[in-house]
Amino acid sequence: MSKLKAKEAKEIKEKLLKERELIVQKLNGNDLSIDDSETPDPVDLAVRNYSKNVMLAVSENESRQLALIDEALRRVEEKEYGECQNCGKEVNPKRLSAIPWARYCIDCQQLVEQGLLDEETA
Ligand SMILES: [Zn+2]
After folding, report:
1. From the candidate CATH numbers 2.40.110.10, 1.20.120.910, 1.10.3720.10, 3.30.470.20, the one assigned to the domain spanning 6-32+41-113
2. How many CA atoms lie within 13 A of 14 on its CB side?
3. What is the pLDDT along the chain (122 residues), one digit of tens a residue?
4. What is the whole-number distance in angstroms between the Cα of residue 106 and the centre of ligand 1?
5. What separation in Å is there between the alpha carbon of 73 and the centre of ligand 1?
6. Relative orientation angle of helices 6-29 and 42-77, to the nearest 10 degrees
7. What pTM, to 2 d.p., does this model score?
8. Is the C or the N end of the chain the one with fewer CB within 10 Å?
């Protein structure tokens, strides 16, 4: 597949949007609606802060994935979907079906994981 067919683009978009929805729901679920009206004792407070930090770490991952999904959606619109954002080669369709928001081909992904590729400027 060199260029996406309209039908494929639609399917990918739906898949991405569905995934996006799930993450948004998850993020909303992380909204710690702690009742701060009562005066918590110090131990209680520590536990709360701890779980808050854990939640924040989770949110960071999700937010990052959200950004990747938005990026992938944009690539679908711009008909660039399926191209590696580093080398411009076609990303393996199997890889895309497993990770629809993948930015890179396997080779470049390995470079990213080894810290050999600067993700932000790629
Ligand atoms: Zn590549």
Report:
1. 1.20.120.910
2. 6
3. 456 789 999 999 999 999 999 999 988 886 655 555 667 788 888 888 888 887 778 788 899 999 999 999 999 999 999 999 999 999 999 999 999 999 999 999 999 999 999 876 44
4. 7
5. 19
6. 170
7. 0.73
8. N
